[in-house]
Amino acid sequence: MSFIKRLTVHYKELQKNPAPLCHAEPEDSDKSMFHWIGWIEGPENTPYSGGKFRLIIDFPPEFPFKPPAVRFTTQIFHPNISLTGEICLDILHSQWSPALTIRGLLISLCSLLTDPNPEHGLNKEALQLYRTNRQMYDEIANEWTKKYATEKNS
C-alpha cells in the first residue's frame, strides 16, 4: 500500500471511529498528507483536566516502518514531555510497530497524561517533583494547564 493511501486509511479510520479525548487530521490534505495537526484534551481527574494540548505529527516517507515525529506545541508540565514539546514514549522510538494506528498512537499519548512514566523523563524538574512531591507536581501541572492550554490561551 502506498504511503499516501496508508495515511488516507488512517485518516478515514479516525473520522469513522474517533479516539476519545483526541483529534488529528492533515493540516491541509490538498497540499500534503505528511503534516498533521491535532490535540489531546486533558483527561478528567488529572492536573491536565480542562486543557486542550495541541500537537503536530510529521510522517516520514518510510511510514509505517518508521514512527511519525510527534511534538506538543502547547506548553505542558509533564515528566515525559520536554519544554520544547518532545515526547518520551517508547512507541515513538524503540517500540514502534507498523501495526500501530494513528488512533492507537493518540490514545497512548492521552494515556501518558494520565499515567506518566516515572522511570524516564525529559523534563527533569517535573520528573523529580512527580517522584517526590506529587501534590506540588499536580499544582504546577494544573497551573500550566490553565496558563497555556485553556481555550483563551490555545
From TrEMBL:
* Keyword 4Fe-4S included in the entry's annotation: no
- GO MF terms, alphabetically ordered: ATP binding; ubiquitin conjugating enzyme activity
Keywords attached to this entry? ATP-binding, Nucleotide-binding, Transferase, Ubl conjugation pathway
The record places the active site at: C88
Q: Which SMART domains match?
A: UBCc
Domain UBC core, by residue range, is 2-150
* InterPro entries, per database record: UBC (IPR000608), UBQ-conjugating_AS (IPR023313), UBQ-conjugating_enzyme/RWD (IPR016135)
Q: Which domain of life is it from?
A: Eukaryota
Give the EC number. 2.3.2.23
Q: Which Gene3D superfamilies match?
A: Ubiquitin Conjugating Enzyme
Q: Which family does it belong to?
A: Belongs to the ubiquitin-conjugating enzyme family.
Query: Which protein is depicted?
Result: E2 ubiquitin-conjugating enzyme
| Organism annotation | Adineta ricciae
| Organism taxonomic ancestry | Eukaryota, Metazoa, Spiralia, Gnathifera, Rotifera
